[in-house]
Prior knowledge:
Order of helices and strands: HHHHHHHHHHHHHHHHHHHHH
Oligomer: single chain
Low-confidence stretches: none
Distance between the termini: 65 Å
Structural class: mainly alpha
Number of strands: 0
Amino acid sequence: MLESKIKGLKNEIKKHPDDLPMLSELVGLLRSAGKYDQAISMLEKFLARHPDDFNALIIYGETLLDLEVFDDAIRILRRACDIRPCAQAHYTMARAYDLKGLREEAIREHNLAITLEPECAEAFYRLGVTHSRAGAYDEALAAFRKCLKCDESCAKAHSEMALVYDRLAKKETAISELKKAVDKDPRNAQWHCNLGAIYGDAGMYDEAIQEFRTAILLGGGGADEHYNLGMALSNRGNLEDAVAEFKKSLEIEPDSPKALFNLALVYLRKGLHSKAAKCLTRCLELDTDNAKAYFYLGNACLGQSDVDGAIACFERSVAVQPQDWRSYYYLGIAYDHKGDKPKAAEAYKKAESLRQ
């Protein structure tokens, strides 16, 4: 359907090469399809004929920003502002500066946008995002509140405020803000995912499970969504369902160390040491310095009476994370199983020293 529409618009543009509204629609479709080279090429051809077309410059700058060609995007948008002051151009430049890590320049552009359009909710929203990324949480919350004053229906402002409150360890307020986002935009899978994550952090696993399942039903069934649901189910003690969700996550993203690791932990809880060992071995192929993976692989080896394998894993774990007393303690257990009492005693002594 999308390809057919793109093809049709391309044919029309050949007949009407200077029709900017039609070109704008085509560029939007090309960006949606990830065909940025074609979008850039068509815009450059148009601007070669109309170098000072304000709207074309805005579209060109935004397309360059999508490609993360930040300096060129800023240059083009600045050129548009030289033709006509424009809040949209300023807050798009602010976003480019923000993504470059230039907070002061980003804030300057946000403020210019707000000066031009004092009731521009989007400008306040993006200003809040810039402050939030920099850890300036009070300023971020103030900007999001101004955004909502301009547009009380802005669900994403509530969502961003929730993330700020979550970072400030104000879980109840974060949940309240995300509920407002969900109320205003109930079919947005991301809001449900964010709410599920905060519920999970707060130990409210039933609520977290419900939100993650809602997100998946709404089309947010990516690897992370299934992984997050698996984590909530695992924490809730629903081990069979957790295994199913981790497997779904791995079907989408087979080389995910975190999904492999947590699937292995569920297998260990179920006493399935061989399956756990297989997952952890693959996890360590992808994440070679994961001390916890070595530790739990050592446990899986012990569960299969592979004492030498367990010792090798626990020794690797303490090499990567030498302050972990548990790895030394289990290393002592493995040496005990092997009958090497001196090494076992040495490992126990180290574990006790670190634990204290």
